[in-house]
Fold:
Amino acid sequence: MPLRSLMSLLADDLAVDLGTANTLVYVRGQGIVLNEPSIVAMKDGVVLAAGHEAKAMLGRAPGSISVIRPLRHGVIADFDSTEKMLHYFIRKTHQRRSIVHPRVVVTVPSGITQVEKRAVRQSAKQAGAREAYLIEEPIAAALGAGLPVAEPGANMIVDIGGGTTEVAVMSLSGIVYCKSARIAGDEMNTAVIQHIRKNYSLLVGERHAEDIKLRLGSAYPVAGEHLTMEVKGRDLIVGIPKTILVTGEEIREALREPIMAIVSAVHTCLEQIPPELAADIVDKGIVVSGGGALLRGLDLLLHEQTGLPIRVSDDPLTCVVRGAGALLDDVKLLARVALPS
Structure:
Protein backbone atom coordinates (compact mmCIF):
# COMPACT_ATOMS: atom_id res chain seq x y z
CA MET A 1 0.00 0.00 0.00
CA PRO A 2 1.43 3.46 -0.91
CA LEU A 3 2.59 5.58 2.04
CA ARG A 4 0.05 8.34 1.20
CA SER A 5 -2.85 5.83 1.32
CA LEU A 6 -1.54 4.36 4.56
CA MET A 7 -1.33 7.83 6.13
CA SER A 8 -4.92 8.59 5.12
CA LEU A 9 -6.04 5.44 6.95
CA LEU A 10 -4.07 6.31 10.09
CA ALA A 11 -5.16 9.95 10.22
CA ASP A 12 -8.72 11.08 10.89
CA ASP A 13 -9.31 14.07 8.62
CA LEU A 14 -10.64 17.18 10.37
CA ALA A 15 -12.68 20.25 9.56
CA VAL A 16 -12.08 23.25 11.83
CA ASP A 17 -14.30 26.29 12.19
CA LEU A 18 -11.67 28.61 13.65
CA GLY A 19 -14.02 31.30 14.92
CA THR A 20 -13.48 34.46 16.92
CA ALA A 21 -15.83 33.26 19.66
CA ASN A 22 -15.72 29.45 19.35
CA THR A 23 -13.63 26.78 17.68
CA LEU A 24 -15.47 23.70 16.43
CA VAL A 25 -13.80 20.52 15.20
CA TYR A 26 -15.49 17.96 12.96
CA VAL A 27 -13.87 14.53 12.53
CA ARG A 28 -14.62 12.60 9.37
CA GLY A 29 -16.83 9.65 10.19
CA GLN A 30 -17.61 10.91 13.71
CA GLY A 31 -19.17 14.36 13.32
CA ILE A 32 -18.57 17.30 15.67
CA VAL A 33 -16.27 16.22 18.48
CA LEU A 34 -15.26 19.60 19.94
CA ASN A 35 -17.05 22.91 20.45
CA GLU A 36 -15.15 25.22 22.78
CA PRO A 37 -14.43 28.96 23.20
CA SER A 38 -11.47 30.28 21.19
CA ILE A 39 -9.55 31.19 24.32
CA VAL A 40 -6.19 29.96 25.61
CA ALA A 41 -4.55 30.45 29.03
CA MET A 42 -0.76 30.52 29.05
CA LYS A 43 2.03 30.95 31.57
CA ASP A 44 5.63 31.49 30.46
CA GLY A 45 4.69 30.32 26.94
CA VAL A 46 3.17 27.05 28.14
CA VAL A 47 -0.53 26.29 27.60
CA LEU A 48 -2.32 25.76 30.92
CA ALA A 49 -5.82 25.46 29.48
CA ALA A 50 -7.87 26.16 26.37
CA GLY A 51 -11.56 26.35 25.57
CA HIS A 52 -14.06 26.20 28.44
CA GLU A 53 -11.35 25.90 31.10
CA ALA A 54 -9.59 29.02 29.81
CA LYS A 55 -12.87 30.96 29.51
CA ALA A 56 -13.56 30.32 33.20
CA MET A 57 -10.27 32.16 33.93
CA LEU A 58 -11.22 35.23 31.85
CA GLY A 59 -11.08 38.32 34.08
CA ARG A 60 -10.13 36.18 37.08
CA ALA A 61 -6.56 35.03 36.43
CA PRO A 62 -3.52 36.43 38.31
CA GLY A 63 -1.02 38.59 36.45
CA SER A 64 1.32 35.64 35.87
CA ILE A 65 -1.28 33.90 33.65
CA SER A 66 -2.25 35.38 30.27
CA VAL A 67 -5.79 34.56 29.14
CA ILE A 68 -5.85 35.30 25.41
CA ARG A 69 -8.46 35.43 22.67
CA PRO A 70 -6.04 34.89 19.77
CA LEU A 71 -8.54 35.64 16.98
CA ARG A 72 -10.13 38.99 16.25
CA HIS A 73 -12.71 39.60 13.53
CA GLY A 74 -12.32 36.01 12.34
CA VAL A 75 -8.58 36.21 11.66
CA ILE A 76 -5.43 35.51 13.65
CA ALA A 77 -4.35 38.38 15.87
CA ASP A 78 -1.79 36.36 17.87
CA PHE A 79 -0.02 33.73 15.75
CA ASP A 80 1.82 31.93 18.56
CA SER A 81 -1.19 31.46 20.83
CA THR A 82 -3.43 30.43 17.89
CA GLU A 83 -0.95 27.74 16.92
CA LYS A 84 -0.77 26.45 20.49
CA MET A 85 -4.56 26.53 20.91
CA LEU A 86 -5.06 24.64 17.63
CA HIS A 87 -2.42 22.10 18.61
CA TYR A 88 -4.17 21.61 21.97
CA PHE A 89 -7.56 21.06 20.31
CA ILE A 90 -6.23 18.74 17.56
CA ARG A 91 -4.42 16.58 20.12
CA LYS A 92 -7.56 16.54 22.28
CA THR A 93 -9.71 15.27 19.40
CA HIS A 94 -7.17 12.50 18.72
CA GLN A 95 -6.89 11.43 22.37
CA ARG A 96 -3.39 12.92 22.49
CA ARG A 97 -1.94 10.53 19.88
CA SER A 98 0.92 12.74 18.70
CA ILE A 99 1.77 10.49 15.67
CA VAL A 100 -1.46 11.42 13.88
CA HIS A 101 -1.12 14.04 11.12
CA PRO A 102 -4.59 14.66 9.68
CA ARG A 103 -5.73 16.48 6.57
CA VAL A 104 -7.43 19.65 7.83
CA VAL A 105 -10.04 21.93 6.26
CA VAL A 106 -10.13 25.35 7.98
CA THR A 107 -12.83 27.97 7.42
CA VAL A 108 -11.82 31.63 7.05
CA PRO A 109 -13.64 34.95 6.40
CA SER A 110 -14.11 35.84 2.73
CA GLY A 111 -12.16 39.10 3.03
CA ILE A 112 -8.99 37.43 4.34
CA THR A 113 -5.64 38.78 3.09
CA GLN A 114 -2.74 36.75 1.69
CA VAL A 115 -0.77 37.33 4.91
CA GLU A 116 -3.70 36.11 7.00
CA LYS A 117 -4.15 33.04 4.76
CA ARG A 118 -0.49 32.17 5.23
CA ALA A 119 -0.82 32.58 9.02
CA VAL A 120 -3.82 30.20 9.17
CA ARG A 121 -2.09 27.58 6.99
CA GLN A 122 1.09 27.81 9.04
CA SER A 123 -0.85 27.52 12.29
CA ALA A 124 -2.64 24.39 11.09
CA LYS A 125 0.56 22.75 9.84
CA GLN A 126 2.55 23.67 12.95
CA ALA A 127 -0.32 22.21 14.99
CA GLY A 128 0.16 18.87 13.24
CA ALA A 129 -1.85 19.01 10.00
CA ARG A 130 -0.47 17.07 7.02
CA GLU A 131 -2.33 19.30 4.55
CA ALA A 132 -4.36 22.46 5.22
CA TYR A 133 -7.18 23.63 2.95
CA LEU A 134 -8.83 27.03 3.45
CA ILE A 135 -12.56 27.40 2.73
CA GLU A 136 -14.46 30.68 2.80
CA GLU A 137 -17.03 30.72 5.60
CA PRO A 138 -20.06 31.61 3.41
CA ILE A 139 -19.44 28.53 1.21
CA ALA A 140 -19.11 26.27 4.28
CA ALA A 141 -22.19 27.82 5.92
CA ALA A 142 -24.25 27.33 2.74
CA LEU A 143 -23.20 23.67 2.50
CA GLY A 144 -24.02 23.18 6.19
CA ALA A 145 -27.46 24.71 5.60
CA GLY A 146 -28.08 22.27 2.76
CA LEU A 147 -28.00 24.85 -0.05
CA PRO A 148 -27.14 23.55 -3.57
CA VAL A 149 -24.10 25.78 -4.08
CA ALA A 150 -22.83 23.82 -7.11
CA GLU A 151 -25.97 24.57 -9.15
CA PRO A 152 -26.33 27.62 -11.46
CA GLY A 153 -29.06 29.31 -9.37
CA ALA A 154 -28.35 31.92 -6.71
CA ASN A 155 -28.17 31.08 -3.00
CA MET A 156 -27.83 33.83 -0.41
CA ILE A 157 -26.59 33.37 3.14
CA VAL A 158 -26.00 35.70 6.09
CA ASP A 159 -23.52 34.14 8.51
CA ILE A 160 -23.27 36.11 11.77
CA GLY A 161 -20.35 34.90 13.87
CA GLY A 162 -18.46 36.32 16.81
CA GLY A 163 -16.12 38.64 14.92
CA THR A 164 -17.52 38.96 11.40
CA THR A 165 -20.79 38.90 9.50
CA GLU A 166 -20.53 37.39 6.02
CA VAL A 167 -23.30 38.25 3.56
CA ALA A 168 -22.83 36.31 0.34
CA VAL A 169 -24.54 35.23 -2.87
CA MET A 170 -23.22 32.02 -4.42
CA SER A 171 -23.67 30.21 -7.71
CA LEU A 172 -21.79 27.38 -9.46
CA SER A 173 -19.54 26.63 -6.43
CA GLY A 174 -18.29 30.20 -6.25
CA ILE A 175 -19.08 33.48 -4.53
CA VAL A 176 -20.64 36.00 -6.92
CA TYR A 177 -20.65 38.82 -4.37
CA CYS A 178 -19.76 38.96 -0.70
CA LYS A 179 -19.91 41.72 1.87
CA SER A 180 -17.80 40.98 4.94
CA ALA A 181 -18.56 43.28 7.88
CA ARG A 182 -16.53 43.27 11.07
CA ILE A 183 -19.70 43.73 13.07
CA ALA A 184 -21.09 40.65 14.81
CA GLY A 185 -21.48 39.07 18.25
CA ASP A 186 -18.46 40.80 19.82
CA GLU A 187 -19.72 44.25 18.80
CA MET A 188 -23.13 43.40 20.29
CA ASN A 189 -21.43 42.50 23.58
CA THR A 190 -19.53 45.80 23.49
CA ALA A 191 -22.80 47.68 22.83
CA VAL A 192 -24.31 46.08 25.97
CA ILE A 193 -21.27 47.05 28.06
CA GLN A 194 -21.39 50.64 26.81
CA HIS A 195 -25.15 50.95 27.40
CA ILE A 196 -24.89 49.80 31.02
CA ARG A 197 -21.85 51.98 31.63
CA LYS A 198 -23.49 55.07 30.14
CA ASN A 199 -26.93 54.69 31.73
CA TYR A 200 -26.08 53.12 35.09
CA SER A 201 -22.39 54.01 35.66
CA LEU A 202 -21.86 50.28 36.12
CA LEU A 203 -18.95 48.31 34.68
CA VAL A 204 -19.67 44.72 33.61
CA GLY A 205 -17.27 42.21 32.12
CA GLU A 206 -17.32 40.68 28.65
CA ARG A 207 -18.62 37.30 29.84
CA HIS A 208 -21.48 38.92 31.77
CA ALA A 209 -22.36 41.15 28.79
CA GLU A 210 -22.63 38.08 26.56
CA ASP A 211 -24.96 36.44 29.09
CA ILE A 212 -27.16 39.58 29.13
CA LYS A 213 -27.29 39.56 25.31
CA LEU A 214 -28.28 35.89 25.20
CA ARG A 215 -30.99 36.21 27.85
CA LEU A 216 -32.46 39.62 27.02
CA GLY A 217 -31.27 40.48 23.51
CA SER A 218 -33.65 40.76 20.57
CA ALA A 219 -33.83 42.48 17.21
CA TYR A 220 -37.60 42.87 16.98
CA PRO A 221 -40.26 43.45 19.64
CA VAL A 222 -42.31 40.40 20.61
CA ALA A 223 -45.89 41.12 21.73
CA GLY A 224 -46.42 40.46 25.42
CA GLU A 225 -42.73 39.79 26.14
CA HIS A 226 -41.30 41.82 29.04
CA LEU A 227 -37.98 40.31 30.08
CA THR A 228 -35.86 41.61 32.96
CA MET A 229 -32.57 40.53 34.50
CA GLU A 230 -30.47 41.42 37.53
CA VAL A 231 -27.06 42.66 36.45
CA LYS A 232 -24.08 42.77 38.80
CA GLY A 233 -21.00 44.88 38.30
CA ARG A 234 -18.76 47.58 39.77
CA ASP A 235 -20.20 51.03 40.41
CA LEU A 236 -17.91 53.48 38.60
CA ILE A 237 -18.79 56.35 40.95
CA VAL A 238 -18.29 54.81 44.40
CA GLY A 239 -16.18 51.84 43.27
CA ILE A 240 -18.11 49.06 45.03
CA PRO A 241 -20.15 46.13 43.62
CA LYS A 242 -23.77 46.93 42.78
CA THR A 243 -26.85 45.18 41.33
CA ILE A 244 -29.29 46.78 38.91
CA LEU A 245 -32.37 45.60 36.98
CA VAL A 246 -32.15 45.73 33.17
CA THR A 247 -35.04 45.21 30.72
CA GLY A 248 -35.19 43.49 27.36
CA GLU A 249 -36.46 46.68 25.70
CA GLU A 250 -33.36 48.68 26.61
CA ILE A 251 -31.01 45.88 25.52
CA ARG A 252 -32.83 45.75 22.17
CA GLU A 253 -32.25 49.49 21.81
CA ALA A 254 -28.58 49.05 22.81
CA LEU A 255 -28.15 46.42 20.07
CA ARG A 256 -29.89 48.50 17.42
CA GLU A 257 -26.73 50.04 15.90
CA PRO A 258 -24.78 46.79 15.25
CA ILE A 259 -27.94 45.01 14.07
CA MET A 260 -28.80 47.75 11.58
CA ALA A 261 -25.21 47.62 10.31
CA ILE A 262 -25.82 43.94 9.48
CA VAL A 263 -29.11 44.87 7.74
CA SER A 264 -27.18 47.50 5.75
CA ALA A 265 -24.68 44.84 4.62
CA VAL A 266 -27.59 42.69 3.40
CA HIS A 267 -29.00 45.64 1.42
CA THR A 268 -25.57 46.33 -0.12
CA CYS A 269 -25.25 42.72 -1.26
CA LEU A 270 -28.74 42.71 -2.79
CA GLU A 271 -27.98 45.93 -4.68
CA GLN A 272 -24.77 44.56 -6.21
CA ILE A 273 -25.87 41.22 -7.68
CA PRO A 274 -27.00 40.66 -11.31
CA PRO A 275 -30.77 40.79 -11.93
CA GLU A 276 -30.94 37.09 -12.92
CA LEU A 277 -29.57 36.08 -9.53
CA ALA A 278 -31.79 38.62 -7.76
CA ALA A 279 -34.80 36.88 -9.28
CA ASP A 280 -33.62 33.55 -7.81
CA ILE A 281 -33.34 35.11 -4.35
CA VAL A 282 -36.88 36.47 -4.55
CA ASP A 283 -38.02 32.84 -4.89
CA LYS A 284 -35.54 31.17 -2.51
CA GLY A 285 -35.08 33.90 0.09
CA ILE A 286 -32.16 34.30 2.49
CA VAL A 287 -30.72 31.77 4.94
CA VAL A 288 -29.28 33.04 8.24
CA SER A 289 -26.61 31.05 10.12
CA GLY A 290 -24.04 31.51 12.89
CA GLY A 291 -24.56 32.34 16.55
CA GLY A 292 -26.14 35.70 15.67
CA ALA A 293 -29.00 33.85 13.93
CA LEU A 294 -30.22 32.85 17.41
CA LEU A 295 -30.95 36.49 18.34
CA ARG A 296 -34.70 36.66 18.88
CA GLY A 297 -36.64 38.41 16.12
CA LEU A 298 -33.69 38.84 13.74
CA ASP A 299 -35.48 36.87 11.01
CA LEU A 300 -38.58 39.08 11.45
CA LEU A 301 -36.49 42.26 11.18
CA LEU A 302 -34.69 41.04 8.04
CA HIS A 303 -38.02 40.09 6.46
CA GLU A 304 -39.44 43.53 7.28
CA GLN A 305 -36.37 45.30 5.87
CA THR A 306 -36.00 43.24 2.66
CA GLY A 307 -39.47 41.82 1.95
CA LEU A 308 -37.81 38.46 1.22
CA PRO A 309 -38.43 35.04 2.81
CA ILE A 310 -35.97 34.47 5.69
CA ARG A 311 -34.99 31.04 7.01
CA VAL A 312 -32.79 30.32 10.03
CA SER A 313 -30.62 27.27 9.32
CA ASP A 314 -30.90 24.13 11.42
CA ASP A 315 -28.47 24.34 14.35
CA PRO A 316 -26.95 27.64 13.13
CA LEU A 317 -24.02 27.48 15.59
CA THR A 318 -22.58 24.37 13.89
CA CYS A 319 -23.59 25.19 10.32
CA VAL A 320 -20.12 26.27 9.14
CA VAL A 321 -18.19 23.31 10.55
CA ARG A 322 -20.77 20.81 9.26
CA GLY A 323 -20.43 22.30 5.78
CA ALA A 324 -16.64 22.14 5.97
CA GLY A 325 -16.91 18.56 7.24
CA ALA A 326 -19.06 17.60 4.25
CA LEU A 327 -16.18 18.64 1.97
CA LEU A 328 -13.96 15.93 3.48
CA ASP A 329 -16.16 13.39 1.67
CA ASP A 330 -16.36 15.34 -1.61
CA VAL A 331 -12.83 15.72 -2.93
CA LYS A 332 -13.91 17.24 -6.27
CA LEU A 333 -15.99 19.98 -4.64
CA LEU A 334 -13.22 20.63 -2.09
CA ALA A 335 -10.77 21.18 -4.96
CA ARG A 336 -13.20 23.65 -6.59
CA VAL A 337 -13.97 25.76 -3.52
CA ALA A 338 -10.62 25.70 -1.64
CA LEU A 339 -8.69 28.98 -1.73
CA PRO A 340 -5.49 28.84 -3.81
CA SER A 341 -2.16 28.68 -1.99
Remarks:
- The domain at 147-312 is CATH 3.30.420.40 (Nucleotidyltransferase; domain 5).
